[in-house]
Write a structure and sequence with these properties.
The complex is a heterodimer. Helices cover 80% and strands 0% of the residues of chain A. Chain A is an all-alpha fold. In chain B, helix 9 runs antiparallel to helix 11, helix 14 runs antiparallel to helix 15 and helix 15 runs antiparallel to helix 16. The chains are: A mainly alpha, B alpha+beta. The interface between A and B is large, with 38 and 42 residues.
Chain lengths: 306, 512
């Protein structure tokens, strides 16, 4: 297990360095940052002065090294428009997005697990067909449309939940459901197909032959094995979930980091973009590492490399 | 199984604990909620051109003079009276017993410090152009100040409505950076908290010298999505929203929980063309191309069909409510044949490519839809338009200021709520000003002479000439004077303001 963890850690570091290079190059692939920042009518002298001021006249690896060493200390420079440092700007908005994605994930699991299990056990039944229909509908619904529909039904018509905002638990319900509904169909299908596959395996027959009750067979033997692909895919889907968060945050006026990132890209506010990209990527990488470790815990064959 | 449920409950409660605490004890009954589409960039109004900053500024700061919304005349506020001493001197008497939010009394010192700061060329305050005619401010006694102007200054009193009074002590001790987040005014409300791009909370200033506002709290929520704003209005989460798209007015009026308020506002919409080549060489430096685009777009039918008549067509960018507007000048009429001919003469017989920069529709109702229609018309005569959208007004405005939005971009001007032609001509058409993409020496002379005489008849003549020139030269693509559309909850009484400044201290509960 220790070697397995070590390997994961080394991979993590390599990926983080890769991300930092990508984030660093954002500024350089979109064109000359100095021209972008200076007024159009600025003279050559001002251009040179600014280039020097930004350290852009130095060799590229020196620039990267400076960027990386500062970034490690949480210094990504000042936002070009807000006149505030980028790091606190991003960090301040991080919790809102994390709450949203975690609760979205929770909702997705709450929907997907029971329905997936029932659909697998009652294969080709009315329940199964219903679940398939639900999955197709869920997958086909654009997330912004669902969000607006939820607002119209629960806020405007029934007046039971707030239409937007942040701060109380009521504010969580609609966005979390919206985001959860986006992830649930895929998860449900995975649970279903995973469970069906496992239920046909020899060890299930063995368990049954031993006289284990059907309930225990499903929960203890089958479900645990069916979980492996689900957990893996959920880890991979975490990035998708952050993508869904952008739309959810906009519709529900949710003060998260996803909208901040998109706004900053539109505004060409690169320090903020770089900071957000690095931190979000870091989260995705950590989540995926955690998933790898979790899968290793669930399935000993993976951690021993068998 | 039990264990995992317990774990889940623990996780959920940890999540709940980590949530931000609720705001101070406000109830629905003592709070009015106002929504904006995008946030302000600073709480220091002279440093910003955003309409949102002007609006919030009015709720927290006071001005020397204000506009009476019924008569539209300028009346005293922190100033009690003003008089002309000679051609270049104005004397202003100040109100006594007024206190800033930090308890310091308001005196002549503060007036001088406010103007000195705005006029300091080193500070590059956005509002400087508004007051550039003022040469110096002299303290006569604690409650009397004299303004020395550079030549006669007819707009002096009007412009007093566009300058918030800030505290000398704060300017001296705290400085510019601190002031961006901590407004210390004398106004009816005080700022409690600001969560950027999320919410502002204001509380009533119980020491206010004027009439007390009804609502103890004002929450200003930033809601970028218009559909969400309307949903909040209908569900009671928000009381007042602005710039409602015309196609949504029916939804609001038939809801039974809110209504719309419409008022002509002192704002003209137009599309700026980069005649001055601030973003580099472009086709609009050629007068024929500028006339062609004005002939290409059928603005009358856009007003009628796209924004349900909520616009007053103008020949140039001067608003019908502004002093100096010339009613005799007739706007361009659509003439596609002539537009094509002009383009061919200008060297574009096969059409031309242009980039069109668009800002968010936060002050102009239905802006995106009217842009769609205008571009469709332009395409018919040979313009191939590539659209480039910026979602945040503070950024869009900053880029306009830096000269980066050419060759054409959406723009509208609210005159800093100063009802005079000069308030747009100087900022938007005078060579070298921040937001001007037009440069014409002949026009500059007219602008200067218009602001240099106290003779209103002569000023009217000067502005008529200026408008003729702007029309003939087709400086920009002219559109219309706007009518603002507000969404107002049936819980409150509020009337749409013609100067586009939402004063939350005027909101009261609706009489049953």
């Amino acid at each position: 297990m220790r070697r397995y963890l070590l390997r994961q850690l080394v991979q993590l570091i390599v990926v983080i360095i890769g991300i930092s290079i990508l984030a660093f190059s954002i500024l350089h692939v979109i064109g000359d940052p100095v021209t972008l920042l200076l007024p159009q009518n600025a003279g050559k002298e001002e251009y040179a002065r600014y280039k020097h001021l930004m350290g852009l006249d130095q060799p590229i690896w020196v620039q990267y090294w400076k960027f990386a060493t500062r970034a490690v200390q949480g210094d990504f420079g000042k936002s070009w428009y807000g006149n505030t440092p980028a790091f606190p700007l991003v960090i301040e908005r991080m919790p809102a997005t994390i709450y949203l994605t975690v609760s979205g994930l929770g909702v997705a699991l709450l929907i997907a697990l029971p329905l997936g299990v029932v659909a697998a056990l009652k294969r080709h039944s009315v329940v199964d067909t219903f679940c398939t229909m639900l999955a197709v509908a869920g997958q086909a619904m654009p997330i912004f449309w669902l969000g607006i529909m939820l607002i119209i039904i629960f806020a405007v018509r029934l007046k039971v939940l707030p239409a937007s905002g942040y701060g109380t638990w009521q504010n969580f319900v609609l966005p979390a459901f919206c985001l959860g509904a986006f992830l649930a169909p895929l998860t449900m299908r995975l649970v279903r197909s995973g469970l069906i596959e496992v239920m046909n395996m020899e060890f299930i027959k063995t368990a049954r032959a031993k006289g284990v009750g059907e309930r225990m067979v499903v929960i203890k033997h089958a479900f645990r094995n069916a979980c492996i692909p689900v957990v893996t895919v959920l880890g991979l889907q975490f990035g998708q979930l952050l993508g869904g968060a952008i739309i959810t945050e906009t519709v529900f006026a949710w003060p998260g980091v996803a909208t901040l990132t998109v706004d900053s890209i539109r505004n060409q506010d690169f320090p903020v973009v770089q900071c957000a990209v690095v931190l979000l990527a870091l989260i995705i990488v950590i989540v995926n590492t955690a998933v790898d470790i979790l899968v290793g815990l669930i399935d000993p064959r993976i951690r021993t490399g068998a | 199984m039990v264990r995992s449920i317990a774990l889940g409950v623990a996780l959920l409660s940890a999540l709940a604990l980590a949530l931000p605490g609720a705001a101070p004890a406000q109830t629905k009954d003592d709070t009015v909620v106002y929504a904006l589409q995008s946030d302000i960039d600073t709480w220091d109004p002279p440093g910003s051109v955003l309409r949102e900053t002007i609006i919030l500024g009015y709720n927290v700061y006071d001005h020397l003079a204000v506009r009476d919304l019924k008569t539209r005349k300028v009346i005293p506020n922190l100033a009690l009276s003003w008089k002309v001493v000679d051609d270049t001197t104005w004397e202003v008497k100040l109100r006594q017993g007024v206190k800033f939010h930090d308890g310091t009394p308001f005196t002549a010192k503060d007036v001088k410090a406010t103007f000195d700061r705005v006029l300091d060329p080193v500070k590059k305050m956005i509002a400087r152009g508004n007051h550039a005619k003022i040469k110096s401010v002299e303290i006569v006694d604690d409650y009397t100040v004299r303004f020395k102007t550079d030549g006669p200054y007819p707009l002096f009193v009007e412009r007093l409505t566009a300058q918030v009074m800030e505290s000398e002590k704060v300017i001296r001790e705290k400085g510019d950076e601190w002031m961006q987040e901590h407004p210390v005014g004398t106004g009816p409300y005080k700022l409690v908290s600001w969560h950027r791009k999320q919410e502002h909370l204001l509380v009533r200033n119980d020491d206010y010298w004027g009439p007390k506002p009804y609502y103890k709290y004002v929450r200003i929520r930033i809601i970028p999505e218009q559909a969400t704003q309307i949903a909040e209005l209908l569900s009671g989460g928000v009381d007042i929203i602005k710039a409602v798209p015309p196609d949504q007015m029916d939804v609001i009026n038939k809801s039974g929980s809110a209504r719309t308020g419409v008022s002509p506002i002192l704002r003209t919409a137009f599309i700026q063309l980069d005649q001055a080549a601030r973003s580099g060489p472009n086709p609009f430096t050629d007068r024929r191309v500028r006339i062609a685009v004005n002939l290409a777009v059928d603005q009358d039918s856009i007003i009628k069909h796209v924004i349900n008549g909520l616009g007053d067509r103008v020949a140039t960018a001067i608003n019908p409510m502004a002093f100096g507007w010339d009613p005799n000048l007739k706007p361009y009429k659509q003439d596609t044949a002539r537009a094509k001919k002009l383009l061919a003469e200008a060297g574009f017989p096969n059409g031309l490519d242009v980039v069109f920069n668009e800002g968010p529709p936060n002050v102009e109702p239905g802006q995106i839809q009217t842009d769609d229609a205008a571009i469709a018309d332009m395409t018919k005569v040979g313009f191939r338009v590539k659209r480039n959208y910026t979602g945040e007004s503070s950024v869009f405005v900053a880029r306009a200021k830096e000269g980066k939005l050419g060759p054409m971009f959406t723009w509208s001007w609210g005159y800093y709520s100063v009802f005079d032609a000069d308030a747009i001509l100087y900022d938007i058409f005078k060579c070298g000003e921040f937001y001007a993409y037009y440069c014409n020496k002949e026009l500059d002379d007219l602008i200067i002479s218009g602001r240099s005489t106290l003779d209103q008849k002569k000023r009217t003549e000067v502005y008529a000439k200026a408008q003729k020139l702007l029309f003939d030269d087709a400086a920009y693509l002219y559109k219309w004077g706007l009518r603002g559309v507000w969404g107002i909850s049936n819980r409150v009484d509020y009337s749409a303001p013609p100067d586009e400044v939402d004063r939350m201290f005027l909101v009261t509960p609706r009489k049953k």
